[in-house]
Amino acid sequence: MSLSDWGLIIALALIWGSAFFLITVILKEVPPNTMVFMRLALAVPPMLLWLSLTKERMPRDTASWQRFFILGALNVALPFIVFTWGQARITSGLASVLNATTPLWGVIVAHYLTRDERMTPLRLGGVVIGFAGVAVMMGGDALSGSGDTILAQMACVGATLFYALASIYAKRIGSDGLSVMQIATGQVCTATVMLIPVVLLTEVPWAGSMPSAGTWAAMVTLSVISTSLAYLLYFRLIASAGASNALLIPFLIPPVAILLGALFLNETLTIGQFGGIALIALGLAVLDGRLIRHLAPARAVP
């Protein structure tokens, strides 16, 4: 990957790493499915505005919108509903650990559904090392509640499979002539429509009290930054670096959350957490492959 690809990965890790904190704040006052709907609905206007400023238009053919509905279900509606339900029942730190299982699914899915991203021992080794780093960084305390919250944890892990499938499908859509912004906007618009019947059938959002100003601020940030901007960057990354490399992002989300806590919430980092971050960095280096190629001895040319 190029330096710009790594820059996108780091930016997305920062944006989505803070999203776990924002979601935890919002769920204290807003039901899960209502929160997902509000997150998407508030993200649509900025995306449409950006399309207008760049003089792009959404396609009007049926085939494109069928693709948007499939991607909106795989990458937004289904994983958001399932993962938010799970996060409402476990800690945000544990949720970020479970979210980091996405690359494990991604390597398997990419191997069977693509021709140019086959599984190799090096790639598989990098994924395993990175996941081990996430486990070490969070420590045994993060997993202590597994007996009481097993269903919630299974839901979070299941949601990551949708993300892995969506990354492959998004790459295929990108080869159909649709721009990055059209794909990002299309999936959010269709996912918003899908959430309307879900909210009406499962929750009664108008019966609750009005969220506080702090919750609204968290919601707007989650929508504009962690959704609108993040998806634009995400699809650019897939187009440039491939679906499997885009799945490196979940490895970086947990350390981002811990580092932000240390900087702004006076939280301390343990030796185990530093060790986990080092393992994650090693896993990323193995997946990228350039460091290993540089360190490997050159073969003699006869």
Number of separate strands? 0
The shape is globular
Give the termini separation: 31 Å
Query: How confident overall, as mean pLDDT?
Result: 83
The portion of residues assigned to helices is over 70%
Beta-sheet strand percentage?
A: under 5%
Number of helices: 13
- Which structural category fits the helices and strands? mainly alpha
Stretches with pLDDT under 50, minimum 5 residues: none
Largest sheet: none
Radius of gyration: 19 Å
Query: Which sequence of SSEs, written as H and E, runs from N to C?
Result: HHHHHHHHHHHHH
Explain what the structure shows:
The protein is an all-alpha fold. It contains 13 helices and no strands. It has helices spanning 3-27, 32-53, 62-87, 92-99, 102-113, 121-138, 150-174, 180-202, 213-241, 243-246, 249-264, 271-288, 290-295. Helix 3 (62-87) packs across helix 8 (180-202), helix 4 crosses helix 7 (150-174) and helix 4 packs antiparallel against helix 11 (249-264). The longest helix has 29 residues, at 213-241. The two termini are 31 Å apart. The mean pLDDT is 83.
Entry summary:
This protein is mostly helical. It contains 13 helices and no strands.
Give me the secondary-structure topology.
Elements: H1 3-27, H2 32-53, H3 62-87, H4 92-99, H5 102-113, H6 121-138, H7 150-174, H8 180-202, H9 213-241, H10 243-246, H11 249-264, H12 271-288, H13 290-295
